[in-house]
Every structure is written in structure tokens, then in C-alpha cells.
Amino acid sequence: MSSKPYREIWRLMLMKIIARWLILALTLAALSSCATYRPISSDRSLNGVPVTDLVVVLEKPYSFRPGYVMNTLPAGIYRPAFEDDNGVYFQCPTKVIIEDVVGSTVHDGGVYIKFTAEHEPYYYVGISRPANFRLPRDFQFKLERLSSQRNQ
Predict the structure, then answer these.
(1) Domain regions of the chain by residue span
(2) Which of 54, 55, 105, 135 sits at a 20 to 30 Å CA gap from 120?
(3) Is 39 in contact with 82 (CB distance < 8 Å)?
(4) 3-state DSSP call for residue 30?
(5) pLDDT tens digit string along 27-58?
(6) What are phi and psi for residue 83, nearest 5 degrees?
(7) Measured between alpha carbons, how far is residue 52 from residues 12, 69, 130 in Å?
(8) Beta strands in the chain, from DSSP E residues, in sequence order
(9) Cβ-based neighbours of 41, under 8 Å, separated by 6 or more
(10) What pLDDT score was predicted for residue 33?
């Protein structure tokens, strides 16, 4: 009885194992490269003002419905929490409210402002998901210095 078929089977099994480990390693590398969240750095600014000195102010709650789910950002002062290469995450003062057919849930989240001249506002829920939902044009907010909020 020849051992050649067994060698071929072992070789194929070894190649499968190596291919699976390679796919796993590439997937982990891709996922870790996406995780660019970090604490606010002191050299980041919007309109020449350090991000650490800025807040986003919502005068009243803002609700919007992307699809079948109602999302509500409460009124209040949103403070800078994290940044990535493209913008700053301003944390909600309480929790964002998400209502669907099952009921309401509350989550960490807030407003993401891009480092662009327009300071485009995006919505984020949890820090593990990217801020990829552009808030509607009727979303009203103020980007203010923190020192002006301390007096109120």
C-alpha cells in the first residue's frame, strides 16, 4: 500500500489550515487598522480653537427617522470625548434615545463633527460604530467655546 495518497491528503489539510490562519490574520489586521479612535489631542482645532475648548450645544431635542427607527438627540451641552483622523466625537450629556417597533432603548452617542470648513454634523451611537449618518439639513446646533458655557 502506497503512502502517496495520505501525503497528498495531509498536504491539502495543511494548506487549508495555513489559508484559514492567513485569512484570520488579514481580517484582524484590517479590523485593527479601522480602530482609530483616541483621546482628544491638544493640537487639534476647529476654526482655530482647540477642540478641548469647544462644545456642541443643542437648544432643544432633535428627532429624526432614518428608515423605520426614530432617533432622538436630547437638548444640552455635548462635550468632546474622542477624535479620529477625520473629526471629533461630542458626547451626549445623557443618552440618545432609539425607538423602534419593539420599544425604546437608550445608548451612549452624540454628534460627530468633521474637520472640514463646513463642520458637517454626523450622528453616532456607541464608539464602536463609525459616525456615518449625516444629520439632516434641518439639524440646528451651535459650536461654542467652553468658556462661554461656564458663565451660564
Answers:
(1) 1-34, 45-150
(2) 105
(3) yes
(4) helix
(5) 655 554 454 778 888 888 888 889 999 999 99
(6) -140, 165
(7) 56, 32, 21
(8) 45-46, 49-50, 54-58, 62-64, 70-73, 76-83, 87-91, 96-99, 104-107, 109-114, 121-125, 133-134, 142-145
(9) 83
(10) 47
